[in-house]
Design goal:
Blueprint lengths: L1 H27 L19 E11 L2 E6 L4 E5 L1 H6 L11 E8 L5 E9 L10
Length: 125
């Protein structure tokens, strides 16, 4: 009986320690990482359109792996504000993002939509 309690206590400790570590990692991620970066003027027409797979997410900040293999950060906060953001988004989903390039090569999207296929989309622009 003592062994069972000790094992149960060890499992609970391990689970709590893992949750504690996860909470620390989540707290270490900035909530609004691109607010200080100068944003381009986001009109109704998108200058750029890219297609790829979501490989990382933090709220409306996405990292999209383009067909070329290059990773592109996409700030979709404006698309979410405008209601042109296909939610929910998940890791591994294919997306089309349209917007303007800003500081540091970030695409400030005015529209983000999920795709079922990427092989019939036009070239990135």
């Amino acid at each position: 009986m003592l062994r069972t309690r000790t094992l149960a206590a060890a499992i609970v400790f391990a689970l709590l320690s893992g949750a504690e570590c996860a909470a620390q990692v989540i707290e270490a991620v900035p909530r609004t990482p691109l607010q200080s970066a100068p944003r381009p003027n986001l009109g109704a027409r998108a200058e750029h359109a890219v297609y790829g797979e979501i490989v990382a997410m933090n709220g409306t900040l996405l990292t999209v792996r383009l067909r070329s293999g290059r990773a592109l950060r996409v700030d979709a906060s404006e698309a979410a504000r405008r209601g042109t953001y296909s939610a929910p988004m998940f890791l591994g989903k294919l997306v089309a993002a349209e917007g303007s390039l800003g500081a540091g090569g970030v695409l400030y999207a005015i529209r983000v939509t999920r795709l079922s296929r990427i092989d019939q989309t036009p070239a990135d622009r």
